[in-house]
Every structure is written in structure tokens, then in C-alpha cells.
Fold each of these.
Amino acid sequence: MIRLEHVRKTYGDSVAVDDLSFEVPEGDVCVLIGPSGCGKTTTLRMINRLIESSGGLIEVQGRDITGVRPEQLRRHIGYVIQSVGLFPHLTVADNIATVPRLLGWDDARIKPRVSELLELVGLDPGEYARTYPRQLSGGEAQRVGVARALAADPPVLLMDEPFGAVDPLNRERLQAEFARIQRELRKTVIFVTHDVDEAIRLADRIALMRDGRLEQYDTPETLLDHPASKFVHDFMGADRALKRLGRVSVAKVMRTDLETARLSDAGDLDRSACGERRFVYLVDSLGDLRGWVDCLDLDAGHSAENAMTLIDWREASVRPDATLKEALSGMLGLGFRSIAVTDRGRLVGEVTLTAIEAIMNESDTHLADPVKPLEDGELPSRPTDARPDHPAGDPDA
Amino acid sequence: MRTAPSARRVDRVAAMGAAVALAGCTLLPFAEFRVNRIASGTAQPLGAAGVAGFALLALAAVALALAFAPPGRIRSLSMLLAGAALLAMTPWTLGEAAVRLQVGADSIARVSVGAGGWLAFVGGAIVWFAGSRGTSPGVRLFAALAVLAALVMSVSAGGVGQLSLAREYGGQAERFWTLVRQHFVLSGSGLGLGALIGIPLGVAASRNRAVRDATLAVVGVIQTVPSLALLGLLVAPLSAAGFRGIGATPAIIALTLYALLPIVRNTYVGLDGVSPAALDAGRGMGMSPMQLLLRVEAPLALPLVLEGLRAAAVMVIGIAAVTAFVGAGGLGILVFQGWGQQADDLTLLGAVPMVMLAVAADVSIRALAAVAVSPGIREVHQ
């Protein structure tokens, strides 16, 4: 838990943070957002005392931070920054081991922990542990940055625009992975960003700041639907309905009872294969999506060959951990009212525009809590059988 | 990237080295014959060395051919070997020439190294360097040791002892080694004290802007004072402080002052170049200022600090020659006496070991860097 009470930061006569009070409950993600210079990064850095506050009270896990030595405090707070800041002279494994070493863990404890963390962030320990930061891509580097922050299992995580320097495609993947990790670990997180979509996607609560003051502190839905001021309304943007789709993962609304056929049998398909559906999805022997047959074309008397479209799943499908906003964007790009859902190529479901519309009409309460949209039995990283006629949801792998 | 130079079809560096060696063997006097120590010499061609001379010529030709051979590991290794052989063969061949030329001559007659002999040696070094670029550091180290061993063997076995330089040495071996030791102690003290003072100054400069401006200005000004002038300037304050203005004390002070600039500047630049993100991350993870310095900043600044030490070492070894003027001893004495007596051999007896000291310092600090600098920040070598 993190609690700020009447926190101030002044530099001479100028006020960077003014009378800031809010509380982040255990296990929640609080996103600090606002225009440049609003004091969000200053606020974040006051919590681990990289900047000393000029007044007020800051409590982390129930303890006043001014009563703890700054080094001691920071070793128990994970810290992730936009520029990552990996130590270039150390291997990935040694980078991750930084805080455990500062805390005096022995190597027998550190080594398995490093492997565990690399797996958690989706990097193969065998391949990455001995490499140096300069050999990593931007996305890989930030995965290592997150692993390093989590190394000593701190209850609290401070993240300063962690995905801000990554290209948009990788940013969405990192966001999805962070959501998965957070669902698993339930850290208390303060996350600074200037990207409203990122805030809406990841936050349990958003603290919107302006000129060092808190404008509104509430759930993303409330900020979207009941902005406390014109500033909040304008900052959150006009496309509120669309933004709310950024709160819901594809896995939550996709349907898995699809009509599928083997690609090798596609030539023999006729109208009876379609059932009630528009598309019969074509998969290969591994269950990977290769294309579809459009039943409207079959109805119009075309042969199966002519009704068939072959695609690359990377371009014509979305991942289960993508948001409905991404799915909608994909549909618009393809020009269809539905889009296939694939997990690393394997066909697992389909999202339709109808389902998205239904979600948009639902009340806010059903949409809360975006980082935990899955129910029991849909836990992450569990491989499922690749049976094309029974695609199963495995949204997190 | 390592394969880039050897992937070129013709190795131009090796070709140039071999051409230099060939030119030395054929166009210029390989050795010089003088009737006594200070007489002017008569040029002697490579043929004066007999069979050994033709062997050396053949070796230079082989090295040239190798430069045009198909690129690859084999060619690099062969060039390394050819270069090493040239380096070892040249002194041996010179020794042979000395033995043959002195048969029947007066006992005070001398045979010294001619321009061609020097060129053959330099060409060998270039070919060796060209070959070393395409090989791994381990092979390079092994090859360097092999050259050293071959040199020692050719010097101790052949007629090298008959060359005028060797005879000059033979005449004053004891004094020579005293001077070498003095030179080593003078430059070693200057470098050691320079590092002891310069590295903390560089750290302080990276911490505080005022300290940085003052420090860099002062060490910069010191560097612009000519070495003889500095030694002269030190006399008065040292005398006032109760020290002698001549001898080893002013010499070591001067050498320390000269060593400061590259050490302070490189330490400062190295620390200043550490990425702010790495510092922020280190601090944010709970490193104390000392832990940050030792675990993050020092290893990242190390390549530049070592480069500063290397530059300082080479410079100090050179300036230590001048300190002979204030009675600090060292190899400078041989050089200056040689000039005074117009005895070139004596001058060389001082100059050649100085060059070897400088090269040894350079090579050993580079070797230290190769071991001590993390592979994560090592520059990719050609």
C-alpha cells in the first residue's frame, strides 16, 4: 500500500507538487498521468526518495519513508524507467541479480531466481542469461528491466513511462505482458505515463495531475464517464467509447465455437460446412490459421477455391490479450465485421463486431478491472491442445 | 566485423610491409662498416650477410606473395608467421654481416645497422601486425611471445654480438643496466604518483563542476610548460622547501605533473560518459554513492582510464630522458653523451631501450584492458 498525504515539492519559489493526497490499495495499479511538467515523475521519485519531498507524509507499506534510509527503502521498491538503464558491462543475469546482491543473497538463491524472472518476462534463460545489454532489442531490454525490478520480490513497483521508448507494436505486447504479470504477482504499482490509452488499459485507478495538483483520482471508467472538470474531459479525449474498449481484452468476449476446416480439405467445402457462420476458418495440421472461406461467396454460387482467402495470421488476426480497441481496428483494416483470434498463429477464437457493440452498451461495472478479466480455469501460460475443431482459449501464452 | 580486414582480397597493409622490407633488403645499404667507433661508415649491401641475406630476401618475397593470397584464417596465420620470422631473421642476418665484414679487419672496426636493416625490421613488424588483425587475441598473444623468444634466440645465438650496438653495450653493460633501472623507476614513480593523484582528481572533477573547471585548467596549463622549463622552474621552490633542486626529486615531481593531464582528463571523461539512465537505475535500486562508483561507474569508465594511463606511461617514459639534465639519471644520459661524442652507437644504446620500454608499457596496458574491460562494453576489434 502507498499513501500520500498533503505532499508538497517546491524548488525555491516554484511549486512542482502541491498538496497531493491519494492512496493506492495493496495490489492495485495506479497510473499517474497528465501533461508534461504536471509533477507526475516528481511524485513518483519522491516515493523512493530519489527526490526528497518538501512537506507532507508518504507511507509505503504502512511506514513513513522518511524513517527509512533511502538505500534501504529503494531496495524494497522495484524501479523501472523509460530509458531502462541496464548496466552495459554486466550480463543480463547479473543485471537482474543487482538488488538480490545488494541485499546479500547467496548465489545458490540468485541463480534460480534469475531464470524464474527471465521466464516470467518471456525470455528464454538459456538464450539470454549470458548476453550483454547491447545485444538486446528495445523490447527485450525493457523486459529485462522489469525482471530486474522484480528480482527481490518487492511489494511495490514504481514505473516511469516504462514502455514510452518502445515502438507501438512492441508497446502493446509489453502492456499485455505487464497486465499478465501483474495479474499473477499483484504488486502495488505506481505507473507514470503520458499515454491515455496505456493508462486506461492498465490502471485500476488513474491519478490525473495538472500543475502539481491532483485533478481527479478514480477508476478509468469514472474518468471517462464522469470527468470532474473540463480539463479531465478534454485530457481523456473525445473518443471515450473507443477508449473504453481499451479496457477489455479480446479473450473476454471472443467466441471459441468456430467452424473450421483443414486447409488441405478446403477445396471440397460446400454450403453445409458453414452452419450459421459467415466464415469457415482454414487451419493447417498444427492448428495455425491460414485463411478462411467466405460463406457469402459460396451462397452466391462461387466454388470453394474462389471463396477462399489465404492470409498471414500476423496481419489478419489479433492476440487473445489484445484489447477490443485493437480488435476493432483490425476489423476496420480488413473490412469485415469479425476478426480471428490467434495465439502465436494457433486459431483460438473469433471476435465479432456484434460482441463489441454489446460490450459498448453494457454498464461500466461489468468492465472494471481490466488486468484481471479472466476467470479461473483460464490462467496464463497453460498450453492447450491444438485441436482445430475445438479451439481453446489460451489468452496469455 | 573481425573478418572485415582479412576479407579484403589484397591485404594492402601486409603488401606495404613486405614492400618496405623488400626495399630495405635491395635498395638501401643493409649495414654500415666503419673503421672505428666514431668514423663515418661505408654502405654494405645485403649480400654482405651471405646466405642469410638471401634467406631474408626470400622471406620478404614470401610475405609479399602472402598479401595477394586468398583471404582467410590461413592467410592471416601465415602472415603472422612471416612477420614474426622477418622480425627475428633481420637481427640475425645483421649479425652474420657483422661477423663476415669484420674478418681480417682491425679489432676497433665496427659494423652497424644500415637504413635497409632498419627497414627490414620495420617491414616485418608491419606484416606481423597485418596478420594479427585476422586472428583471435589468444593467437596474437602467443605470436607476440613467439616473436620475443625468436628475437632472444637470434640475438644470443648469432653474430649479433659483433654488431656495433652490441659492442657498445658490451663496453658498459653494468652502467647500462643501472641507467635502465633508473629510467624505469623514474617513469614508474611518475606514472604511479600521477595515477594515485590523478584518478581521485578525475573522480572529484566528475562530481563537482567547480572542481572540474579548476582541475582541468591547471593540469592543462602544466602540460603546456616545456619539460626543461618545468624542471628549471622547480629548482627554486624545491630549494626553498629544503629539497635539492636537482636529482631524482624534481624529476619525479615533473613526471608526476605531466602524467596528470591524460589521467585526470580520461578519468573525468570516462565517468562523465556513464549513461544517466544507468546511474538513475542504480540509485533507484538502492546503491549507495560508493557502490554506484565501484559497481557501475568504475567498470564503465575503465577503458578510458586505462587509455589515459597508457598515454601517460608512453609520455612519461619519453620525458624521463630529459630529466638526465637535472642529474636524475636514466637512459637520457646515454643519448646525450652519444650526441656529445658523436658516437651514434652510444645514442642508440640509450634510444632503443627507451623505445622498447615505451612499447612494453603500451602493450602491457593494452593487454590489461583486454582482460579487465567487460565484454559488454569492449569495442569490437578489427
Note: The interface with chain B takes residues 48, 50, 70-76, 79, 81, 83-91, 98-99, 102, 132-134, 145, 148-149, 158 of chain A (CB under 8 Å).
Amino acid sequence: MTTAVPAGPPVIEARGLGLTFETGDGSVRALHEVDLTIAKGDFVSFIGPSGCGKTTLLRVIADLEQPTEGDVWVNGVSPEQARLDRAYGYVFQAAALYPWRTIARNVALPLEIMGYSKAEQAERVARTLDLVNLTGFENKFPWQLSGGMQQRASIARSLAFDADILLMDEPFGALDEIVRDHLNEQLLELWARTNKTIAFVTHSIPEAVYLSTRIVVMSPRPGRVTDIIGSPLPRERPLDIREAPEFLEIAHRVRDGLRAGHSYEDA
Amino acid sequence: MGGVTQRVLPVLTVVAAIIAIWYAATVWLNTPWQIDLYERNGTSWTTGMLVTDTMAQERPVLPAPHQVMQEIWKTTVEKRITSKRSLIYHSWITLSATLLGFALGTVLGVTLAVAIVHNRAMDKSVMPWVIASQTIPILAIAPMIIVVLNAVGLSGLLPKALISTYLSFFPIVVGMVKGLRAPERIELDLMRTYSATSAQVFWKLRWPSSMPFLFASMKVAVAISLVGAIVGELPTGAVAGLGARLLAGSYYGQTIQIWSALIMAAVLAASLVALVGVANRVVVKRMGVRP
């Protein structure tokens, strides 16, 4: 089960990646010596306590932050070029739907920006809303939807254009556990259907183990990778796989990794 | 209908209180002159007579509400609109300058705000001047604007409107700079992940986000536009407009005329602010904001 080796060609690669924020009272090392390869079709979770740099790492990949050391490639080019190529869809912690747009028009937002024709927009909006089970809510405004539905709409928005990479930053962090279970199941289904490469930030061990083909365990101060765990679980995963011994074994290893990263702290 | 009563009752109470205080003040302020008059004419007077007479003076220190209302009635309903003595005619003169000035002020304010938000140099250099412009007393600068524009052959509506503009662009700039910067980090990041151009970020995010700020500052701007138009009518010895009525009233001690012009200006300002409020509600509703 230590098959931490990627399966397909690399989609995201980081070598000696580091990022130091200069703040008013000194510099903060958010990332240190991060080496990572994510292959095509992978579902990689980043897990760790707050301050371990998992969100920062995702933002570096998305060209929302600039690394201060090392190199990172997305689809073999710089993150900036990948962003300009619209190579990825990004799902934020909050749904970040624009409140003055209906759900359909929110999903159409990237399509408008990228210059898709009206007909193509309508077709893609219908298709992606169906993918996240939101058909029938096209003309609702965000405030009329529950938190889980809003987050699904934001996922639909990230799927609407043809990006092969999906970057997700704790997308279900603010939702209750029942909704989260349901969305996790749907996300796996969606991953199987679309064959996207997904990088997923979370602080929930069961969520990371349930979703991922590989789990990247990170620890704080400075944010670094302490363990990369390949999952032996099959791609098709019913929710009750979480009771299986293999599942619990991986969860245990993740927990050990997190604890090791914490050992020098009093927390 | 309980809702309507609940909303209207407090307003009516305040109005009634103001009118009561106004009447009391009328008697109090007009009494010295009235008593003086009685004494000069050797008239013996009673309190009842005093109260009635203080409310019926021709040039009172403070006219009674009903005198002002009668004057407004006489100069609006009973005069042809084209008459130089019609308050509606004068209101229109002032209103047209107000509206033109407000429109120019809004355009100028929004333009400056857009430039300030998109350009660091503008942000650093323009804002202090914008603030400085408002520390100059408008009464001091208004005559100069009028005189300078007259020298280049501009007179009538535009100079007055420009004084309105001078006052009204300020709240628009301040409000819109805040409004255009209202989008949250996450909303801007989203645009960045799409590699959106700054024009796209503006029209699809910054502009819609700024709507509540735009309307809030337009409410302030339209009211001070009216003040600007009236002030613009004072130094020129203008022959028409509410400002001219105020000026003429004070030349000839026509306090009733002054007050009726003041009331008219207040009604006009309230209506303009209310109109902006209606426009706000329409836009907000179309934007699908939670009721």
C-alpha cells in the first residue's frame, strides 16, 4: 500500500518548492522543500492542520500565489501559462457565487469570459448542472439554495469549461457531515465520469481517505510534506467502504503522519 | 393596514410637533414688533389679538405655516407656469440645473472612481485633490465659476449646473471607490483563475458589486446638487430660480417669499432623493437581491 508512485504522465509537478511570506513582523515560511508529482487521472488529497500550507500549495499551483523557491509545472508549463490556457477549474472554500446572477448565469460566467457562443453556453450549463444534480434550479438566485447546493453550483461552474484539472480548496469544509458524505459520493461519481485530475484540500481524515488515490500529509511551521500515501482502495467506492479494514489502516497511517508532524508542538 | 398606520403615524406625529413649535415660535418672534406697533398707534391690545396679529404680519420675522402655505398655493396653483411669479417656473429653472449638474457629477464621479481603482498613480494623486476640492467654501468659488464661464461666453444653465457638479461628484467618487473595491478576495481570485481581462472583471464583478454604494452616494449627491444650483443662483443676481427668489425675498424683506422658496426646495430635495430610492429598489430587484 506504499505505492506512492504516480500512475500516468505527470500533470502537476513540484520540485523543491518553497514560499515565504514577508509580513509586517518578520517572514513566515508557508511552504518548504515540497516535492510532488500528480499524475493524470489522480485524485490527490492534501491533509494537515491549519497553517500547514495546503491551501497555499493549491494556490501556487493555480498561480494565485508566487513561489519564492523551487519550480512547479502544470501540464508541463508554468502555472501562469496554465492559468492563461485555462487548464484548471478552481473550487473555493466558499461557493463564491455572484449574488446578482442566477445559478445558470453563475455557471455560465467562465463561459462568457472565455467567449463561448450563447448556444454552447446554454448546452454546457444544462449539462454541468445535470452533472451535479441541480437541474431545475437554473433560475434560482444563490440565496434561494442551501449551502450544499450552492457548493454544488460552484463545482458545476468549475466543470463548465474544458479544464482537465480540478483544484478544490476545502470545498465541503463548511457543510454538515451528512451533506458532506453525499457530496463526497457525488464527487467520486463525477470524477469517474469525467476522468479529471483532482487536487483536493481537506482537514478531514475520512474525507481524504474516502476520496483519494493518493494522500499527501502535511505539517506546519514550515509547511512541508511529511508523507505521501497511495491508496489500495478500488476506484469505485461505496460509502460503507469506510468500515473496511484497508480503509481504517490508511486512516490510521494518515493520523500517525499528522501526529508526527505535530510532535514537537504543545498543541 | 396596521403596517401603514405604523409607518405613517410616527411621521405625522413629528410633522404635527414641528408645526406646533413653528406656530409658537411665530408668536414669540413676531411679538416685539407687534407690541411696538400697538404702542406707536396707541392701540389697546389683548393677548388673543396679539396672537392673531403676529400670525398675519406682512413682513414677519418668522411667517406662520399657513401664511407660507397660502403663498405657495398662490404662486403655484393660481399662477400660470410661464409667469415670472410662478414658483413652479422658478423651481423648474433650479431643477433643470440640478439635474444636469447631478448627471455630470455622477458621470465625473464614476469616471474618477474607475480611474482611481484601476490606476495606482491616480489612487495616490487624485484622492487628496478630490478631498481638497470640498474644503473650499462653495460660496467663495461659485461667483468665480460664473464669472469665468461668462467670460468665455457660457451663461445660463451650464454654469449653475457646474456648481452642482462640483458638489455632487464628491460623494460619488468616495462611494464608488469603496463600491468598486467591495468584491471580496475570493470573488476576484475566481476571475483570475479564468484569466479574465480587467474590463471583464469590471463589468461582471466590480460594477454589479458597487450598485448599493452607487445609489447610496447618489442620494447624497442629488440633494447637494440642489444646494449647488441654488447657491449658483445667488451671486449672479439671477433673475430666475429658487435662489433668485431667496435673494429677492431677502432684498425686500419678503420673509414669506423666502420661506415658501425654502419649503419648495425642501420638497424638491425630498422628491429627488425618493426618486433615487425608487430607482435603487428597481435595480436591486432586477439583480435578484434577497427581499
Note: Strands of chain A lie at 10-23, 26-39, 43-47, 69-74, 88-91, 165-169, 197-202, 214-219, 224-230.
